[in-house]
Amino acid sequence: MNGPLSDLKVLDIATVFAGPFAAALLGDMGADVIKVEMPGVGDPLRALGPFKGDTSLTWAASARNKRSITLDLRSEAGQEVLLKLVADRDVLIENFRPGTLERWGLSLERLRSANPDLIVVHVSGYGQTGPNAGKAGFGTPATAYSGYAHINGYPDRPPVLPSVSLVDYLTGMYAAMGALAAVYQLKVSGGPAEEVDVALYESIFRMLEVVVAEYDVLGTVRERTGNELAASSPAGIYQSRDGHWIVIVTSTERTFARLAAAMDREDMLSDPRYSTNRERLARRTEMNQILTDWVGALTREELHERLDEFSVPHSPVYSAADIFADEHYRARDMLVEVSHPSLGSITLPGVVPKFSVNPGSIRNAGPEMGEHTSSVLTELGYTPDQITDLQDKGVI
Please, which domain of life does this record's source organism belong to (predicted)? Predict the structure, then answer.
């Protein structure tokens, strides 16, 4: 037992973040993931920082649980190898601009000629259809096109972009979910093999459901509100007396009642200015100032003890150093040390979600380019002489 997806075979011919992240998620759950890279070039992730020596930490972290082979998909000989790979795979994940595979001669019909049950997951900036389908798409512009950037930041400052590849990671999650839904339909429900179409901008637009409803019903354009939440008050980031930042949120009337008790301000519960969330939202600035003053009078430890005593949702604002020192992260196996050929070892985020009987695992960090080419081709029936011939021709 090596994870709930140990019988699933995935072919990852995508590059950079979203598609490869989807494949990595499936790999975390035990799927056998073969990563295809261009000979001599590799996935562009290998060129992204930070670096230690010549090693990209981005690649080492992001390409976990994969076997790497090199293969020129634009050559006929490379395509013949690909079709043999496809014949033995359940899912293919690609994120080229729509129409690219067809131009190379790798249409869906040709792929399905090798495996009629192949599930193909397409990841692109704007989807496979629509007037923008052919445009170049990356995750960061997608945050703008989705509407997310417009509401992120402070009202008196420019919009703020995420400091991580948020849209790519979200899209990868949707792509992995789509792949699994398609596998379920095919294997369990007896439905057809699907093409799964995942667009970068749509992955985060899906999360803006209330923003959409708000504009449709009320005609209100959601604007930037800094650390304040539009749905509940008080909520935000506050600084303790000893200079630490802490997040406190009261998303229900019950949690606000707990906060009022923790602050020795039960009077607010009967005060019509603060007794309901609607009234507190109308006085959001005033409410936040009350909380700012209270938090600023206590140390971080005093705040944690007080808020935990009354079960108020809160958290310190953690840095990476804080996370490495936190016992809860360790207890949940969320910091996993993995061996690496040049780094010795690298610590990676653990597997999400957890399974009680047959959990996923991290079996390897990002592999060397083409590390598994010979072994994978041998599995496909290629002889050593045939492999050498492919190498000599630059196909692998």
Answer: Bacteria
Sign of CA dihedral 215, 220, 221, 227: negative
CB count, 10 Å around CB of 267?
Answer: 10
Q: Nearest 5 degrees, angle CA 13-CA 16-CA 18?
A: 85
Residue 137 lies in a domain: yes
13 Cα distance to chain centroid: 18
Task: Verify whether residue 7 is a known catalytic residue.
Answer: no
Q: How far apart are CA 313 and CA 315, in angstroms?
A: 7
Q: What is the pLDDT of residue 229?
A: 86
- Asked if the structure places residue 1 within a domain, the reply is no
The verdict on 58 and 145 lying in the same domain is: yes
Q: How do residues 138-148 score in pLDDT, each as one tens digit?
A: 999 999 999 99
For the chain, what is the largest distance between any 2 Cα atoms, rounded to a whole number of angstroms?
A: 84
Q: What is the pTM of this model?
A: 0.95
State which residues form the domain around 99.
9-207+331-392
Across the range 150-169, mean pLDDT stands at 96
From residue 189, how far is each of 7, 112, 287 by CA, in Å?
18, 20, 53
Q: Establish if 227 belongs to a structural domain.
A: no
Q: What are phi and psi of 94, to 5 degrees?
A: -135, 150
What is the gyration radius of the CA atoms in the chain, in angstroms? Answer: 25
Tell how far CA 312 is from the center of its chain: 28
- H or E element at residue 141: helix 139-145
As for how many domains the chain has, the answer is: 2
Same domain, 80 and 160: yes
Under 8 Å between Cβ of 119 and 176: no
**Could you give the CA distance from residue 340 to residue 372 in angstroms, rounded to a whole number?**
15
From the list 168, 216, 333, 392, the catalytic residue is 168
Cβ(19)–Cβ(12) under 8 Å? yes
User: Angle at Cα 73 formed by Cα 67 and Cα 79, nearest 5°?
Assistant: 100
Q: Is residue 19 part of a domain?
A: yes
